[in-house]
Specification:
single chain, 296 residues, alpha+beta, Jelly Rolls, Arc Repressor Mutant, subunit A, three-stranded antiparallel β-sheet, transcription regulation, HTH_AraC-typ_CS, DNA-binding
Length: 296
């Protein structure tokens, strides 16, 4: 269990999920989340690993299955794999270490780990962790609390943790990314690729999915079929993922006020943006901003 020197039970004003700490870098981001409410069904463009640090055992919905998150097991979510936090209101909160990892950073360890950005990198949605993963996860959580601005330390600990996770849960020696593999993979319709690029470049400009459909030149039914075949998620989930990543970047790195960020992302009312952010990231945008700007 967590050592006695540092308690992760930090005070909070009301019963709602919050970010205790956020670590960011070229690796992506790591969030230490105090969770006591569900998250909506969503997806990320990264591989996503969830580890319990403290509190009640809990569970996630990954695609259509409920999988446990305990002190001895991890939840493993592939890039663009729909998932949701299925909190049980009868249970106490859970502190979760949530890893959102960039494929390009993983490729610095082994080139074929760029496959982490594609479906199927993790063969299963949950699995028993090793004692080493347990120790590394606890060390990472304690370091984020004790030294919130120490990016070098965070990246060192995260490197060891992710190597252990991948070696435990993926057939990484057989995972290859070659031109032959890519050529054999499903191709993305040119019209759908154009729509996806439009969403990524300016998600706030997309007011209605119907606007994307009308500009694509395909029927509504064909649009949804082609999009889900290409990316594994619906256009709405893809749009929300793009909005969230843009929101996280703006909240963390810019000086813009939250109302301006809300408007730039297409939310007519700031409260709608705050609810969207909380339902997808597990924290209010103001709370998220506060913990990303803690001093070294």
């Amino acid at each position: 269990m967590i050592g006695n020197a540092i308690s992760l039970k930090l005070p909070y004003d009301q019963r709602m999920s919050s970010a205790l700490r956020i670590a960011q870098g070229k690796f992506g981001r790591v969030a230490l989340l105090d969770m006591d409410r569900p998250l909506v069904r969503h997806a990320h463009p990264h591989c996503h690993v969830l580890l319990k640090v403290e509190g009640a055992d809990t569970q996630f919905s990954v695609r259509d299955d409920l999988v446990p998150l305990t002190y001895d097991s991890a939840v493993l979510v592939n890039a663009w794999e729909p998932h949701a936090y299925a909190h049980d209101a009868r249970r106490p909160p859970t502190i979760i270490l949530a890893l959102y990892i960039e494929p390009r950073w993983l490729a610095e360890f082994r080139p074929n780990w760029t496959a982490s950005g594609r479906p199927g990198f993790f063969a299963q949605a949950a699995g028993a962790i090793t004692p080493r993963i347990r120790v590394l996860a606890d060390d990472m959580a304690r370091a984020m609390v004790a030294e919130p601005g120490n990016r070098s330390l965070h990246e060192t600990l995260l490197s060891a943790l992710m190597v252990s996770v991948i070696e435990r849960f993926t057939p990484w020696r057989e995972t290859a990314v070659s031109l032959r593999d890519l050529a054999r993979g499903p191709s993305i319709d040119r019209r759908i690729r154009t729509v996806a690029a439009q969403i990524k470049s300016d998600p706030g400009a997309v007011r209605q999915i119907d606007d994307l459909i009308s500009g694509s030149g395909v029927s509504r039914a064909q649009f949804f079929r082609l999009f889900e075949t290409s990316f594994g998620v619906s256009p709405r989930v893809y749009l929300n993922a793009a909005r969230l990543e843009r929101a996280v970047q703006a909240v963390s790195d810019s000086e813009a006020n939250l109302s301006a960020i809300s408007e730039s992302l297409g939310f007519s009312v700031p409260a709608h943006f705050s609810r969207f952010f909380h339902d997808h990231a597990g924290s209010s945008p103001s709370g998220f901003r506060a913990v990303t700007r803690m001093p070294v």
